[in-house]
Amino acid sequence: MSVISQLNIKDAMPIASRAERPRPLKVGVLVDLALTPEAGGHVKCWQRLAEAATGYTDRLDLTVHFNGPEPRRIELSPSVRYVLLPPVFSTARLIRQVPDHTDLAPWHPRLAQLARRL
After folding, report:
1. Is residue 60 within 8 Å of 25, Cβ to Cβ?
2. What confidence tens digit (pLDDT) does each residue in 44-66 have?
């Protein structure tokens, strides 16, 4: 008999007391693409996930970082937001004919500063 089959939910103990509310899980996501109306599937996927996360304000604190023309913060709810930052070294400097541009820089000082707060 495996350990899993021996477990019984009736024997489970709560991690936090009922009086204590557990803190929401803080999640930061880097989507190294621009947030634009013309953006492709990868950006759209994270937009849909962020929209769905707005219904879980008590359990999830989500920040999705995108590339953008200037620094900007877009609040979707008190616990879900987009943060746009200009790329440090965009592929737009090198090539033109690509579906979307990304940041080639190995280090983004502003993003690193924001990530420390997570």
Report:
1. yes
2. 999 999 999 999 999 999 999 99
- Single pTM value for the model: 0.78
CA–CA gap between residue 109 and residue 65 (Å, rounded): 14
Please report, for residues 2, 14, 17, the alpha-carbon distance to residue 8 in angstroms, rounded to integers and kept in the order given: 12, 14, 20
Between the CA of residue 85 and those of 20, 28, 29, 101, what are the distances in Å?
36, 14, 13, 13
105 token code pair: 């820089």
118: its two tokens: 């997570």
DSSP-derived secondary structure letter, 38: T
Tell me the CB-side half-sphere exposure of residue 64, using CA atoms within 13 A.
Answer: 26
